[in-house]
Design goal:
Elements: E1 2-4, E2 10-12, E3 16-20, E4 23-24, E5 27-28, E6 32-36, E7 41-47, E8 52-54, E9 58-60, E10 62-67, E11 72-74, E12 80-83, E13 89-91, E14 97-100, E15 104-112, E16 115-124, E17 129-134, E18 137-138, E19 144-151, E20 158-161, E21 164-166, E22 169-172, E23 175-180, E24 189-197, E25 203-211, E26 213-217, E27 220-227, E28 235-242, E29 246-253, E30 258-262, E31 271-273, E32 278-285, E33 293-303, E34 307-317, E35 320-323, E36 333-341, H1 344-353, E37 362-367, E38 373-376, E39 382-391, E40 407-409
Parallel strand pairs: 8-16, 18-25, 27-34
Antiparallel strand pairs: 1-2, 3-6, 4-5, 7-10, 9-14, 10-11, 12-15, 13-14, 15-16, 17-19, 19-23, 20-21, 20-24, 22-23, 24-25, 26-28, 28-32, 29-31, 29-33, 30-32, 33-34, 35-38, 36-37, 36-39, 39-40
Length: 410
Amino acid sequence: MATISSAGLATGVALGSTNISATENGVASTPFVLTVTGAVLQSIVVTPRNPSILKGSTQQFTATGTFSDGSAQDVTGFVTWVSSDPTIASVNPTTGLTTAVKGGGATITAAQNEVSSSTTLTINNLVPSVTSLSPNVLPIGAAQTLTINGSNFDNNSTVTYNGVPHVATFVSANQLTVQLNSVDVAMPGLFPVVVTNPIPGGGSSTAIISVAGLIVVPSVLEFGLVPDGSISAFQTGTLLAVGTDLTVNSLTVSNNVFSVTGSSSPLQFPIQLGAGNSLQFAVTFNPLLDSPGHMSGSVTFKSNVNSATQTLSGTGTSIVQLTWQPSPTPNVYYKVYRCGNTSPLIADATCLSNPRDDSDYIYIASVGFGILTYTDLAAPSGKYYYLVTAADTNGEESDKSSASNPAVVP
């Protein structure tokens, strides 16, 4: 059971008990019992520490025990393994092999008697992948069941159609379905279908579905400020046949300050557009003379499938056109001054009382050498008077001219 040295150091050889006594010159001590026992487990360390794995994969945990004699041993098969949530991570109680059931976190514990150790396992959801949609082209206005094909789907996957959440039915890891109502498909166009798996891990995948019909892009044209009686620069719109062949039969413009033509020639109807094909057109804004203000309208293209409308808007600005006689001094340019008020009476009293008072007439523009006209596009509604001076290359100005005739901006 045990050996003992001449110095009295006993060494355990096997489990059990034996008597130990000491002898000197024939005199023996009273024997005592020495019991040899096994080393006692004092602590456990579970590895790897706090790992992360993907849903559906496995993780082998190992338990290393430290004993009372200072030794360390692999005790993986001698402890009992437990998961805090088997619905997230299930662990074999005798081997420590753990299976990732679904996304989330669980505590994995190895224990023997009252000695234990734990670690946290994080299970990341997979990133979904959408490979196809069925059908991939939808008719306008008809409620549909949309089938989403791909991979890495689960019953926590969510679906949005054109940014709106829809209830997803889990069919398999490779298929989901959603119900689209008539509002979802009320307008033609190209719309995103997005499948998302939640955190931890997870991610999103997107596919594009077509609702068949005629669309016009952009949906809005804004022309900004355009002088009354002039024609704006043209802006371009595009007709697009989505998901089907169609015939564009006519167009209607709701306000005659807007004009529509082909990009290089007048539009001639009917216009045949194959699925996926497009046609550009040009729109101009021509605010009526002496009719300033915001104006809006629309252009509507009618096809055999649906009508598509583009909204138009712009603001006509008032024009004050000034002309003057040239200065007898050569090589001069001209400075223009304005005085006015929204009230005609105040404008007359202020601007005609002392037309050479710089505090009443505000500098608004300079006109280059030899130019004898100026168009004021910035005057708001009111009554205005104008003065002009001639200035040389050193910036020296002549006396101001007499006041102009009044200009009334509606």
